[in-house]
Design brief:
Keywords: Cell membrane, Membrane, Sugar transport, Transmembrane, Transmembrane helix, Transport
Subcellular location: Cell membrane
Number of helices: 16
CATH superfamily of the largest domain: MetI-like
Organism: Ornithinibacillus caprae
Strand content: under 5%
Radius of gyration: 31 Å
Membrane topology: Multi-pass membrane protein
Helix content: over 70%
GO molecular function: ABC-type maltose transporter activity
Number of domains: 2
Distance between the termini: 52 Å
Mean pLDDT: 88
Length: 433
């Protein structure tokens, strides 16, 4: 009895296993075995076309990705690296098609075992239109995304593990894979270590202080304008939004001139009245203070506009209930206004912090990250992103720039992910994500 059941089970599972094996050996052969001739031929033609058209490219690409070339001045390591990364993407697409071929053949065999008829050509086209048409329409955009976004990111990550710098650049020299040496150098070699920790500390201070000030100022002004006793609200809102209406790079250049210690209006016309002259551009501390004030000025209008709209949506009956219970202004602000505002705006506020962490424009346009600091290869006001720019375009330290960029990306993604997870706006009812 047991043997009969085993034979019956083997006879049931044999077609699906055979179809799977045939698809593993030759793409499309499993579909042909399942009597889906047209689909099997299409998959076979696609597989053969893929191999014929990409074999040589993949061969050279994978070889170049591992070796980065073997003959100086003849092999270009950067070109080989790019070809290798593209080869990986193309190979991944081929593997996806190959896996689809195997899974489809097995599903077809199972349907055949259950006595289900094979779909006709018209039925197959209809199923593709219903299920696959959206994916087919998204495909061009996805391909562009891969080569415009994913490929540059992979290239940047790869550079962080090479020795590509101003003293070792192709085609004169070949690049080498150096593992995590660049990351180790950031915390071991004195000039890199001192610069990295100094710039990193200032980046954190800059992000937290400048962003927090613009949020606090925007929230404070939004509370004032939202007060029922305030008149001419439209005019006041228009005036407070004006800094946002002016292009940021224009405002930054104007502020750079205003803060000039020699001919700037702040020193010459305002502080000179009190016999004070502050070196805004030549002293790192005062340059940082100026940058924080400028960013507060540039950033608060957006926060003000955001909070103004949210404050008008707070239900009035909540404040009336608080008045009945004898709640003070501070208690209403703390327990009603602030939670309601944060619930609605927390994701955008998080993006404000992330944006300022990589706010290259203001640092570069104000004073290009200067003044210089003794013993460091970054300026006194450089943040990580502006330092990466200098390492890339001024000193050609591409490997270190890529390593720092990876660290920046990990920090921003980690901070944003953690804060989004903690934000009530991203929680489902019942406290689950």
């Amino acid at each position: 009895m047991a043997n009969d059941q085993t034979k019956k089970k083997n006879s049931i599972t044999q077609p699906r296993n055979l179809a799977t094996l045939l698809s593993v050996l030759v793409p499309g052969l499993g579909q042909i075995y399942n009597r889906r001739i047209l689909k099997g031929l299409i998959l076979l033609i696609v597989a053969l076309s893929f191999l014929v058209t990409t074999w040589d490219y993949l061969d050279i690409g994978i070889w170049g990705l591992f070796t980065l070339g073997t003959i100086p001045k003849e092999h270009h390591s950067i070109q080989l690296l790019l070809q290798g990364l593209i080869s990986l993407i193309v190979l991944f697409v081929g593997i996806v098609i190959y896996i689809y071929n195997i899974v489809d053949a097995r599903k077809g065999a199972i349907a055949r075992e259950e006595g289900k008829p094979n779909p006709t050509l018209i039925k197959a086209i209809t199923n593709f239109y219903d299920r696959g048409f959206p994916y087919f329409m998204v495909l061009p955009g996805l391909i562009m995304l891969i080569f415009i976004v994913v490929l540059p990111l992979l290239f940047m990550v790869a550079l962080a593990f090479t020795d590509y710098n101003q003293y070792n650049a192709p085609p004169r020299n070949l690049l080498n894979w150096v593992g995590f040496d660049n990351f180790v150098d950031l915390v071991n070699i004195d000039i890199w270590k001192d610069t990295f920790f100094s710039v990193f500390a200032w980046t954190i201070v800059w992000t937290v202080v400048a962003t927090s000030l613009q949020i606090v100022l925007g929230f404070f002004l939004a509370l004032l304008v939202n007060d029922k006793r305030i008149k001419f609200k439209r005019t006041i809102r228009t005036v407070l939004i004006l800094p946002w209406a002016v292009p940021a790079f224009v405002s930054i250049l104007i502020f750079s001139a205003l803060f000039n210690p020699t001919f700037g209006a702040i020193n010459r016309d305002i502080l000179s009245t009190f016999e004070i002259m502050i070196p805004w551009l030549s002293d790192p501390f005062w340059a940082k203070v100026a940058l924080i004030m400028i960013q507060t000025w540039l950033g608060f209008p957006f926060v003000f506009a955001l909070f103004t709209g949210v404050l008008q949506s707070v239900p009035a009956d909540m404040y009336e209930a608080a008045d009945v219970d004898g709640g003070s202004r501070w208690q209403k602000l703390r327990h009603i206004t602030v939670p309601h505002v944060l619930f609605a705006t927390a994701p955008l506020l998080i993006m404000q912090y992330a944006g300022n962490f990589n706010n290259f424009n203001i640092i570069y346009l104000f004073n290009e990250g200067n003044p210089a600091v003794r013993g460091q290869n970054a300026g006194g006001t450089d943040i990580l992103i502006s330092w990466v720019y200098k390492l890339t375009f001024q000193t050609n330290n591409y490997n270190m720039a890529a390593a720092i960029t990876i660290i920046m990306g990990v920090l921003v993604m980690g901070f944003a992910f953690y804060q989004f997870r903690k934000t009530a706006a991203f929680k489902e009812e019942g406290g689950r994500y």
